[in-house]
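Re: your question from the hallway

Yes, I did run it. Sequences:
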Amino acid sequence: MYEPKPEHKFTFGLWTVGNVGRDPFGEPVRATKSPVELVHLLAEVGAWGVNLHDNDLIPIDATPAERDKIVRDFKAALGETGLVVPMATTNLFTDPAFRDGAFTSNDRNVRAYALQKTMNAIDLGVELGAKIYVFWGGREGTETDASKDPITAIKRGREAMNYLCNYVLDQGYDLKFALEAKPNEPRGDIYNATTGNMLAFIETLDHPDMVGVNPEVAHEHMAGLNFTHHVAQALEAGKLFHIDLNDQAFGRYDQDFRFGSANLKSAFFLVKLLEDNGYDGSRHFDAHAYRTSDYEDVKAFARGCMRTYLILKEKAARCNADAEIQALLAEINADSSEMSPFMGQYSREKAAALRTHTFDRAALGRRGQPYERLDQLVVELLLGVRS
Ligand code: GLT
Ligand code: MN
Ligand code: MN
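Structure:
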C-alpha cells in the first residue's frame, strides 16, 4: 500500500544516498559509492529518479574523454534500471575558487568561471533529460558586510541569472530554473535567504516565466519559519517548480534528516498542501542518513522518506474525508453572504455602502473558534486512533 511508484515522482540526489558522513568534526564513515552503484541502490529501494550536480558525476578535473566515458556508463545504468534524471544543478560551492561566492564573488574572473561551469553543467543536465535546473547559492553570501555591498551582490546575481536564461533560450533547451534559498551555512549569511526573497527576486529578472523556486524544508526551518506557508506562496504564484523534502529541528545546524523524522505534524500539513493542490513536480528528498548508518541503513533511510510521504498522503485523504473534521471546517467557514454587497472586487458604491454599515464589534469579538477541538481531531487522525 505504501510502495513507491513512478507516478509519485520520488527522486534523490546522488549526493544524498551517496553521502559518506563527513562533517566539520569527523571523517567519512561510509565508503564512497560510484554514481552507477548509487543508481542501482536507488532502483533497489524504488525511487523514480536521480538528480545530480555536475561534479557528483564528473570530477571537476576530468578530461573530455573521461567525461564521455563516465556519461556513457551512467546512461547505461539509467537504461538498465529505468531511472530518470528530472533535475540537475551545478556545484558552485566545493572548489576553493568559490570561497567568496560564484555569481556574487568580488573576483570577476570567478564570476565568469561560474557562468562557464554552469553552461557546461546545463548541457550535461539536458543531455541526461533534465527539465528543471536548480540553483543553490551556498557560497553567495558573506561573513562580514565590510566585504561586499549587498546591492552590488543582488545586481551580480541578477546579471548571472539573465545571462543563463538567455543561454538556455539561445540553445532552444526545454529547461526551467528553480532557485533554492538557505539563510546561512556554509556562509555566515546567504543572500536571498528565504523562499519569499527568491520569489521577489525572480520578478526582477528578464525572463521571470522560466524561473521558479526549489524550497527546502530544512532551510526555512533553520530560519525559524513555517515551511508550509512558504510553499503555499510559491504554489499560489505558480512558482513551485521543484521541492526539497527533508527534516530539521528548529535552531540546529543543517541536519538534512529523513523526511518526517523531526516535525511530523508540519510534514503532514506540507504533504496535504502539495496533494490537495495537485503539485505535479518531483518529490525530491534532499536528505541523508544519520552518520551512524551503514549502507543497509541508508536504504532504510531512503525507503523511510518515501513511505512516510505516502502514509501522510493517505492521512491527508482521510482528513479530507473525515465527516467530523469537515463539518467543523464548514461551521468555521460558514458565511451568511450578508457582507457580499460590500466586498470582493472594489467599486466606489461598495466602498460607500461599507463605510455606512454599522458593525456590532463586541459581538464580533465574542465569537470563539473551536480550533482546539479541530486540532485534536487532526492529531488523533495522525496518531492513528480515528478510523
Ligand atoms: C547541498 C545543499 C542542498 C542543495 C543541493 C543543490 S546541494 O547538499 O545542502 O540544499 O539543494 O545544490
Ligand atoms: Mn539542506
Ligand atoms: Mn536542497
